[in-house]
Design a protein that fits this description.
The chain is 27% helix and 16% strand. By secondary structure, the protein is of the alpha/beta class. The chain has an 8-stranded mixed β-sheet with strand order 1-2-4-3-5-6-7-8, with helices on both faces.
């Protein structure tokens, strides 16, 4: 959107929402099959499919399962879907979504354009998109919830303490979501307040209702510690004989944590607007991470207030710069791209869905071609 839209009344906001199809006190505009853009060049694949990584069988009581007697179930598995292009291929990439979302983040954009999932495949990279353990098609361990509903105080049979470092303190043991007006619009930096877009905003705000449909109740609080996603990512990268791990937002430090489990398969790390570049890594851990080339990418309008607390995305960028200095002091390389500093303006937190998402993808692809080292 090329100019800022401001409103002095609820009626004005409702009028804009009616024009743009925003979820303001009502239903969002629906995406249809006909509204999805079909590329002119066919997508030719050698293979596509899905599988799970990890998982463990645990015994649970009838009250934890709620259907049938005491029995065993599988928990802590990570769902992976993939496409492999034909012809000569480049290093595989693994895409990891952020909080309250799923692997859908990287697929067709809310306004029907090509997402990074397909684009990276078209650029000769076998591409693997995951759903974090405890989210979407990876499922979650329902036992703790059923125990609380029944008044039982015991932990689920076979469970690990359901605490995840870095999880928002406010979520407790519940399932959180991002609200449309603050959790998404202001926190993801579409504009300074709901219904008002930043000048030159790259996110297609007319399709923000479709992004709202992608939201998934987030049960991060129920995921064991350490998060099984870390080992699953490490195992997947090894299974692929080397892969670049691309993370976003809450999953920002996941590639680093996966590499600390086993660095053998991690050919490169790309953190897109990470919620944190952990300051808690020890010097020994930094020395291990310094062996892996790392790229951090941030968008525009970083200093604005998110509406979800005092920390801004600019603060997070500065934390990543401090992390990069530690990596470089240990003899490694950590590159940072702040798009606005390169004259690319208007990018939101959802860079993979912004109107210029393929331009951002090309920056990442060029870095991968130059820096990624397979079978490190």
């Amino acid at each position: 959107m090329g100019r800022t839209n401001s409103f002095s009344s609820r009626a004005g906001a409702l009028a804009l929402c009616a024009v743009l199809g925003l979820p303001f006190a009502g239903a969002a505009a629906a995406q249809t099959l006909k509204s999805i853009q079909t590329p002119g060049k066919p997508l030719v694949l050698k293979a596509r499919g899905s599988f799970f990584v990890g998982g463990r069988s645990v015994e649970q009581k009838a009250g934890e399962i709620l259907l049938g007697p005491d029995d065993s179930v599988t928990v802590d598995q990570m769902y992976v879907e993939y496409m492999v292009p034909t012809g000569r291929t480049k290093v595989p990439v693994v895409m990891i979504h952020g909080a309250g979302l799923s692997g859908k983040s990287y697929d067709t954009t809310p306004d029907g354009r090509m997402g990074w999932y397909e684009y990276f495949v078209r650029k000769a990279h076998p591409t693997y998109v995951v759903d974090q353990v405890g989210r979407a098609r990876s499922g979650f361990n329902q036992a703790a919830i059923n125990n609380r509903l029944s008044g039982a105080n015991s932990a689920p049979s076979g469970a690990v303490a359901p605490t995840t470092p870095g999880a928002p303190a406010a979520i407790g043991q519940g399932a959180f979501r991002f609200g449309d007006r603050v959790g998404v619009w202001t926190n993801f930096r579409f504009g300074p307040k709901f219904g008002e877009a930043f000048p030159g905003a790259q996110f297609p705000v007319g399709a923000v209702g479709e992004l709202s449909k992608q939201a998934i109740p987030d049960l991060t609080s129920q995921v064991p510690s350490p998060n099984p996603t870390f080992r699953a990512l490490s195992d997947l990268a090894i299974d692929l004989d080397g892969a670049v791990l691309i993370s976003h937002s809450q999953s920002g430090p996941f590639p680093m944590d996966a590499a600390l489990v086993n660095p053998r398969g991690v050919a490169g790390i790309v953190a897109v607007e990470p919620g944190a570049c952990r300051a808690s890594y020890t010097d020994e851990q930094i020395a291990r991470l310094a062996r892996i080339p790392t790229l951090v990418v941030f968008g525009d309008n970083l200093s604005v207030q998110t509406g979800l607390g005092g920390i801004t995305w600019q603060d997070r960028l500065e934390g990543c710069r401090a992390y990069a200095r530690r990596i470089e002091a240990a003899g490694g390389r950590a590159d940072i791209i702040a798009t606005a500093e390169q004259g690319v303006r208007g990018n939101s937190h959802m860079l993979m869905q912004d109107r210029n998402n393929l331009q951002i993808a090309d920056l990442i692809l060029a870095w991968i071609d130059k820096r990624a080292v397979r079978n490190p």
